[in-house]
Specification:
309 residues, alpha/beta, 11 helices, TIM Barrel, 6-stranded parallel sheet, two-stranded antiparallel ribbon, single chain
Length: 309
């Protein structure tokens, strides 16, 4: 996402270097969405994929909105929008089939059975290989799985967004054999310690609208960033690597997708695979987390209304 919008200025040449370096380091899973831009990120990934053997990569994208001419977006899980989005995604990505097609946000006005039913038709047609949901609650996930197998559920999960462990989402995934894909496992960059004040963010940065990055909340949330820094130092790694190792320690069915638009951060993130947190490390981390209250919601109210449906 950050390669195309939301997190300040972008550099396509550097983004393409990141994608190439990711392949060189053994990565193969690319997660995008039509709303990233909109469309710009799928187009960027499509340009990159032209030079890559199709069997070397797993391509995931997400749909779930319709767009007005002024780029305003509304949630739309209708079968017609499912079909429209799929064809558009395929064209922008330049591929014959999407490996994993997620519904980005659940539409409260369309039964999940109708949406997933239309998605399953895309599987039958060979346009999609597997289905996923994003930010769906356990009940919605179970209803969806009765229509067609769900391969993955994507939700925010990190050291400062741990709800999936307490609201039944992760448990439901394991009950149904669904992989769990945490997005923003670095807390939108906050857990790295790089953001100490609002002015560290570019004026165009979307995070300035995020309640957790509001001035007072940000100052209070630095307690968590400081704790992560201390815990990482004890393990001899960076805060980013510690934060990713914590997510990875949840299990092999948990597949975090840290986004970055710089090669040096990609290499740092990939190195987290070598960091093993012991039971004592995890207990100490949990003890520290219990002492810290994260201030602010994950999104502004209108966007929070779209999660865990």
């Amino acid at each position: 996402m950050g390669m195309s919008f939301a997190y300040g200025p972008t550099d396509e040449a550097e983004s393409l270097r990141v994608l190439q370096r990711y392949l060189e380091l053994g990565g193969n899973f690319f997660d995008t969405a039509e709303v990233y831009g909109p469309y710009a990120n799928e187009e960027l990934l499509g340009r990159f994929l032209k030079g890559v053997s199709r069997d070397k990569v797993v391509v995931a994208t997400k749909f779930g909105f319709k767009f007005a001419e002024n780029q305003a977006r509304t949630v739309d899980g209708s079968p017609a929008n499912v079909r429209r989005a799929c064809d558009g995604c395929l064209g922008r990505l330049g591929i014959d089939a999407i490996d994993l097609f997620y519904q980005h946000r659940v539409d409260p006005n369309v039964p999940i059975e109708e949406t997933v039913g239309a998605m399953s038709e895309l599987v039958a047609a060979g346009k999609v290989r597997a289905l996923g949901l994003s930010e769906a609650n356990p009940q919605t996930l179970r209803r969806a799985a009765r229509v067609h197998p769900i391969a993955a559920l994507q939700s925010e999960f990190s050291l400062w967004s741990r709800e999936a462990k307490t609201n039944g989402v992760l448990a439901a995934c394991r009950e149904l054999g669904v992989s769990f894909v945490p997005y923003s496992p670095l807390g939108r960059g906050f857990l790295t310690g790089a953001i100490q004040k609002v002015s560290d963010l570019d004026p165009s940065d979307w995070r300035r609208t995020n309640p957790r990055f509001a001035e007072v909340a940000l100052v209070n949330n630095l307690k968590l960033a400081d704790a992560v820094k201390e815990l990482a130092a004890k393990k001899g790694c960076t805060p980013a690597q510690f934060a990713l190792a914590w997510v990875l320690a949840e299990g092999d069915d948990v597949i975090p997708i840290p986004g970055t638009k710089r090669v040096r951060y990609l290499e740092e993130n990939m190195s987290s695979l070598a960091i093993q947190l012991t039971d004592n490390d995890l207990r100490e981390t949990d003890e520290r987390l219990r002492q810290i209250v994260v201030e602010g919601e994950r999104y502004a109210p209108e966007m929070m209304a779209l999660v865990h449906r």
